[in-house]
Structures are given as C-alpha cells and as structure tokens.
Amino acid sequence: MIDPLAIRTQTSGEQERGFPASEVERATGSETLSGNQLELQYEGSSTFSSWLEGISRARSMVYLENYLIRDDRVGRAFRDVLIEKARSGIPVYVIYDWVGCWATPRSYWKPLRKAGVHVRAFNPPSLGIGDPFGILRRDHRKLIVLDSKVAYVGGFCLGVEWEGRPSQPAWRDTAVKISGPAASAAARAFEATWRGTGGSLGLSQQLPILSDVGDTPVWLIEGEPGRTRVYRTIHWIAARAKERIWITDAYFVAPRSVSEALGAAAQQGVDVRILVPAHNNWPLVGSLSRGGYRSLLKSGVRIFEWQGPMIHAKTAVVDGIWSRVGSSNLNSASLIGNWELDVGVLDTNLASQLEELFLTDLSSSIEIVLPARKLEHGIKIPESSSAIESLDPQGTLPERMMQIRTLGTIQSRITMAPLVRARGALGDSLAGDRPIGREDRTVLGTVSAIILSTAIIAAFFPTFVGAMVAVVAGWFGLTTGIRAYLQSRRARSEEQGTPTTTELD
Asked: Which of 36, 136, 284, 500 could form a disulfide with 493 if both were Cys (CB 3.0 to 4.6 A apart)?
C-alpha cells in the first residue's frame, strides 16, 4: 500500500514512477483524500447484495443517485429497502435522470414518495427560456452514500441486465466500495447535485468528521458540463505512463485528442490496450466506435472486443499503480456534456486486482488487428496467475466466461478489413441482418412511430404540419437569439468592468 503522507510530501517512490499528488490534483480537479479503504466490485448479483445490505444497515442517511433505475426485480428490491429505511425514520434521498428513467413508470416512484423518500428527477424538460440543448446534459452518475462513511461508485445501473436472467448471462461492470473520508466527499457531491434540482440539502455537514480507516489516497473526479476533469486525467495518464495503460470502456467513441494521446503513448512503447463490447446494447455506438479503430491500431494501440452479452465497465489502470473507476465513458457526451462521477486511486493493490480482472476479461475477447497482422484469439492467463481465485472465489465470473465459450460466441477471426467494409449496425438492424439492443429497439420504435404519424398527418393536414414546423423552428430561433443577446450583454458589461446580474450557467 501507498503511504498517503509520503505522497503529500512528494518523497515516496511512487513519485519517481510519475504520479506526484500535485499533478493528480490538477488533472482531476480534486484534493487528495487520504485514509480510505477500497473494495473492488464487478459481479452484478453480489454487488447488488452488498449495496442492499449496506442500505439496510444505514443509521444516519441514505443517498442514491443513478442514471437508470428500472421497474424490474432489481429496481423493486432497491425500492423496498429504501421504503423500509424511510419508514424507520432515516432520511432517504434519491436522484434519477429523467431521460435515463423515461421508460420507468410513474407508479414506480409513488410508493417511495408515499413512504417519505425524497425523490427528484434530474433535468426534466422545461418550457422556460434557457439553453435549447440543455436537455442533452444528463446525470449519468452511479452513486450510493451511506452515513457519509461508505460510498459505492462505478458503472452499475439498477436493472436486471446487471444481475442476469436464466436465459442470458449478466452484464459485466465494475464499481468500488469506498470506506473513509472520500465517502464524505461523495456525499457532498450528491448534495451539490440535489441543490441543482432545486432542493436544499447538507446532512453530511452535520455528521462527525471521519477518521482514517485505511491508507489509500483517493481523488473524487466530479464530471460536469463544460468541465473536462476526466478528459484532462486521460491526457495526463497518457503522458505519464511508462509501461502500460489498460482501458475498459462500454461506449468508446473517443475525441480525436484522446485517441492521439493514447496513440502517442503506444508509439513510445507503452502497452496501450482498449477493451470494448463486441455486442453493444447500442449498436449504433458500436459502429461509431469501430470507425475509430484504424487510426488507433496504426499507432500501436491494441483493441479487444469482449464476446459476452455486454461489458458496461468504465475503468483504466496504469503502470500497476494508478486506477480510475466510475461512470465516465470515453466519448464527448460523457467527457464534456454530462454529470459524471469517477474515482482516481493510487494504490498497487487495487491496480493489481483491476489488471487481473482485465486479463480475465481478455480471456473471453478477440483482438482486432489490421489486415496481414497476426491475430490473438483469446488471451491466455498463465496457470500461475491468481486472477480467478483472488477475484472470484465463488467462481461466477469464470463460469460465465466458460458458458460464453461453450455457446461458441468467440469467433475464429476478426480483422479490420471486414469491419471497414461492413454496413453500420443500425443499418444492418433495419435490413434484418442482426438483432438490436433494448435501448435501440425503444428509440427505433419511437422514431418510427413519430415519422409514420407525421407522414399520415402531413398527407391529410399539410397546413397543420407546416405550422408545427414553424413553431419548433421559431422556438429554437427565439431561444438561441435571446441567449445570444444575453451573452453579448454580459460580454459588453465585462469589457466595461460593469457587474451584471444575468446568470447563464
């Protein structure tokens, strides 16, 4: 383990490996939070059991923030335990994203509110004059805080996909359980989001200051629209890494500068590997991701596609010491446009576990190569490796991977040539060549219904359709014009040194 005091004074051996705390703070936008204990979580059913048990033991407060909460057996299990805590007199606060939960019926939330749970939807549609594209900025965080002592941060949403069905293995995801001062910082992050929904909350300030429970330093990376903290962190690790950068990402459509930074590291001899799902629940995103493979491969980055149902994790591990776990995907929407939450950790133990987990995932993956390049068909874990034993004593993860191999989902060969020639995933879906994911089915069905309805109305009432188009165009024109005027007014005031009360944040 790393001595946080040594990190603060910049005298540890880890500084020599290129990870001084001062630089971590500048990249992540977070102060060094020392004295924590972390536990890696990666298997859905055991992770949810840990979360439910933690909530049931809470004594002071429960904060839950998640992009997606489904009305299924997993979502209802969490609803039941939250209702129980609220009825026992414990303050319970829940934030869900309006877009992420748009398919969750109102009937799901009524029992929570009736029991006294404070529930708020994040960024619902508004008729007010503001940013016309503000609806695109979503709360993509996955966070639970208990008594300001324990926090869970990662990629798990609350849905049955992460637990699995009898006919389908569970999605692979990753989270961390944090005990210590960093949990208090996570509570403050939740309270800031709650205030952003129009409420007032500060329970964490009323609780005693936590003492150290471990020796692991943590940096809480709070992603917000317009703030590029994870973006900066990726650039920083790409510049600092000396040996390896191993990234797992569910929706990898990296901005050009991120791809170039990773490629530059690979060209200088760093072992850069990126693991993505072969069967993305958003096939269109999967196609966009594949569109960026060639430039990365040419620079020496190695890309692997996981052959299971879906890998939803968002992690990075660097040089066996630095780790990132959270909700941020490496795409522009996540890095720049959403509210996200990740943790950066400087700890050899956690990094070792993440590396072992990464290698375990690679054993059920296919490497994507350029034509005429040698293909690695599944990465073998040495028999001496303790990855399986140390990470999954129940054997659930290896068993799931064995099922995947038995089902024959690992293909014999994948190169860039057919990927480049292939049609886009959504086009294939429209042509009936492949199934589409749950989210894509919903969106595709909704878009189809809207287009068909518009066509019918246009056929019989062309004037009405024209009026609707005029209204929408007029609304966008009006809102953008007003915003341009207010921005111009504020700019003139700033130039003249005159304060203005107009706020546009």
From this structure: 500
pLDDT in tens, 335-385: 998 999 999 999 999 999 999 999 999 999 999 998 765 555 445 444 444
Residues 6+ positions from 135 with CB-CB distance below 8 Å: 99, 123, 125
Flag whether pLDDT at 167 surpasses 80: yes
On whether the CB atoms of residues 153 and 63 are closer than 8 A, the answer is: no
151 close to 145: Cβ distance less than 8 angstroms: yes
The enclosing H or E element of 289 equals helix 283-291
**Tokens representing 355?**
């590396």
373-411 in b/e burial notation, b at 16+ Cβ within 10 A? Answer: eeeeebbebeeeeebbeebbeeebbbebbeebeeeeebe
Whole-model pTM: value is: 0.77
DSSP-derived 3-state class of residue 25: helix
Band (491; pLDDT cuts 50, 70, 90): low
pLDDT of residue 403: 52
- Determine the Cα–Cα distance for residues 129 and 162; give it in Å rounded to an integer: 39
Q: What is the mean pLDDT of the chain?
A: 82
Tell me the HSE value of 382 on the side-chain side, using a 13 A CA sphere: 4
Tokens (6 digits) for 218: 């943590």
Secondary structure in 3-state letters for 372-418: CCCCCECCCCCCCCCHHHHHCCCCHHHHHHHHHHHCCCCCCCCEHHH
With beta carbons less than 8 A apart as the criterion, state whether 134 and 16 touch.
no
Measure CA 128 to chain center: 29
Q: What residues pair up with 318 in beta bridges, in sequence order?
A: 245, 322
Asked if 182 and 146 count as a contact pair (C-beta separation under 8 A), the reply is: no
Give yes or no for residue 472 having a pLDDT over 80: no
Question: What pLDDT score does 349 carry?
Answer: 95
Cα Dmax for the chain: 77
Q: 3-class secondary structure for 459-502?
A: HHCHHHHHHHHHHHHHHHHHHHHHHHHHHHHHHHHHHHCCCCCC
Q: Are strands 271-277 and 244-248 parallel, antiparallel or unpaired?
A: parallel
